[in-house]
Amino acid sequence: MKKNRLGNSELFVSEIGFGCMSLTGNYTVDERIIHEAIDGGVNYFDTADLYDFGMNEETIGKAIKEKRQDIVLATKGGNEWGKGIDGWRWNPSKDYLKNAVKDSLRRLNTDYLDLYQLHGGTIEDPVEETIEAFEDLVKEGAIRYYGISSIRPNVIKAYAEKSNIVSIMMQYSLLDRRPEEWFGLLNESNISVIARGPVAKGLLTDQFEQRLKEDGYLSYSNEELKKTLGDLNKEAKSHEISLQQMALRYVAGQPVVAAAIPGASKISQVKDNISAAEVPPLSEGLVEKLQRITKEDFYENHRD
Predict the structure, then answer these.
(1) Cα(211)–Cα(47) distance, integer angstroms
(2) Which helix (H) or strand (E) holds 76?
(3) Could you tell me which of 74, 172, 69 has the C-alpha nearest to residue 114?
(4) What b/e readout covers 88-124, taking b as 16+ CB neighbours within 10 angstroms?
(5) Strand order through the sheet with 72-77
(6) What percentage of the chain's residues is helix, strand, coil (to nearest 5)?
(7) Distance, CA of 112 to CA of 109 (rounded, Å)
(8) Backbone phi and psi for residue 149, each to the nearest 5 degrees, phi listed first
(9) Residue 66, SS3 per DSSP
(10) How high is the pLDDT of residue 209?
(11) Which of 54, 238, 244, 261 is 20 to 30 A from 231 via CA?
(12) Is 27 labeled as catalytic in the residue annotation?
């Protein structure tokens, strides 16, 4: 599988990665899924301490124990939970993040993280303090590189200007093209995009008719969504590929995108995801046609 450099780091990640939030919680099943992905060429695995309140990290750590050296391992922090906290709360402070990393390392059964990401954030956060935490962790060898997971333009701009982030995780798919407005800035800053949700909760798969809901998707009304998905599916069939392969190839084909990270809760889904890596890059003409079929939306909030 093709591997892309993550920002200006020395990490090279598979263009189709694995978003671990979708794992089942059954270790036997999840181990098989993870190993299927690795055997298929996937080397980038992305989890978060908040997923199943640490259990997702423990599953990943146990499953990759014998293959750690072959894996680019990423997790996220900034969401605090525990005694005296109802659910979880946002905490991007330096002290909390440095302690949260230790807990993630223990659960992941490793002594370092390839990539540590801030799991959210607002412009009101103590950004400089958070960056100090990341830089300290790099110096200490706990993490190799850091990034953020955000769809807020003002947060993205702040970290692009003030920090050494190598990546930004953003929800990005043919049905959510809002990140494209920022690709120029990120490319100039040598910051890669890690694309979560590239098949839009299963809407961009052959099961799209079963996934349709009456309330539509993002800015798409139900009727708009039906027509758009129908048109996309016809386009995929005319090129003898599946809708899912076309959707993943569109996202992975953007130069600024280092990895698209669909999830999987079944081995068959892993195989479907990986099959997109075997499809040739979409032609410029097809890309333009897909952009005409879909909406070019923009982030309306958190811009300044």
Answers:
(1) 25
(2) strand 72-77
(3) 74
(4) eeebbbbebbbebbeebbebbebebbbbbbbbbbeee
(5) 18-19, 44-46, 72-77, 113-119, 143-149, 167-171, 192-196, 257-261
(6) 45, 20, 35
(7) 9
(8) -120, 110
(9) helix
(10) 87
(11) 261
(12) no
CA distance 177 to 220: 12
Q: Which of 44, 51, 146, 217 is catalytic?
A: 51
Question: pLDDT tens-digit profile of 173-221?
Answer: 999 999 999 999 999 999 999 999 999 999 999 989 888 877 899 999 9
Q: What are the tens digits of pLDDT across the range 55-99? A: 999 999 999 999 999 999 999 999 888 888 888 889 999 999 999
Q: List the structure tokens of 59.
A: 């599953």
179 and 159 in contact (C-beta within 8 Å)? no
Q: Across-strand partners of 261?
A: 196
Question: In sequence order, which residues have a C-beta less than 8 Å from that of residue 279 and are 6 or more positions away?
Answer: 241, 245, 246, 249
